[in-house]
Amino acid sequence: MLKIRRDKKGFTLIELLIVIAIIGILAAIAIPAYTSYTGKAKVAGVVHSLGAVKNAVAAYYVEASGAPAAADAAAIKTTYGIDVPTQYATFAVADGGAITATIQGVNTDVNTKTIVLTPTWASKTWAWSGTIDIAYLPKG
After folding, report:
1. What are the φ/ψ torsions at residue 56 (nearest 5 degrees)?
2. Which of 24, 80, 118, 132 could bridge 56 with an S-S bond, Cβ 3.0-4.6 Å?
3. Could you tell me the end-to-end alpha-carbon distance of the chain, in angstroms, rounded to an integer?
4. Predicted structure pTM score
5. Separation CA 123–CA 32 (nearest Å)
C-alpha cells in the first residue's frame, strides 16, 4: 500500500504576520534615528565650513587691522580666498565679522534655521548662537 506523506513545509500566516509586525516596529524606530543622524552629519559639515570662514575672517582682521565688511558666499571667495560649499547652507559675513549660515536642504527640523558665529575682537573669542537647536551646535 502506498503511504501518503504530508511533511509540514513553509510558514503559517500567523508567523508571517508576526515577522512583518516586528519589521514594521524596527523601521518605525530606525527611520527617525537615521534621519536625525544624517541631519546632524550634514550640519556638522556646515559647522566645519563656518570654521574655515572664521579662520579667514580672523586672518583678515589681523592683516587689515580692522573688522571686515559684509560679504556673501561669492564675496567670501574673492575677499578671503576660500570657497565654501553651499549645498547645505548659505553663508554671509556681516559688518564686524559675524558669520551666519542659513541651513537648507538638510531636513524639515533644521531647514531655514541659522547658525551664527560672532567674534569679540578685544578678547579674540567667538560665540555660537542662532536659531538652530543646541543639539546641532559644537560642544564647548
Report:
1. -70, -40
2. 80
3. 84
4. 0.75
5. 41
Q: Which contacts of 49-54 are long-range, i.e. CB under 8 A and separated by 24 or more positions? A: 49/84, 49/85, 49/89, 49/91, 49/101, 50/91, 50/99, 50/101, 50/115, 50/117, 52/82, 52/84, 53/80, 53/82, 53/84, 53/91, 53/93, 53/99, 53/117, 54/99, 54/117, 54/119, 54/126
Cell digits for 38? 544624517
CA separation (Å) from 50 to 56, 68, 107, 110, 126? Answer: 10, 16, 19, 16, 11
101 vs 27, 57, 136, CA distance in Å? 33, 14, 13
pLDDT in tens, 43-69: 999 999 998 889 988 888 888 888 777
- The cell for 35 is 534621519
What kind of fold does domain 13-136 have according to CATH? Glycoprotein, Type 4 Pilin (3.30.700)
Give the C-alpha separation, 44 to 10, whole Å. Answer: 48
Within the chain, what is the greatest distance between any pair of CA atoms?
Answer: 106
Contact call for residues 91 and 98 (beta carbons, < 8 A): no
Closest by CA position to 50, among listed 18, 88, 22, 19: 88
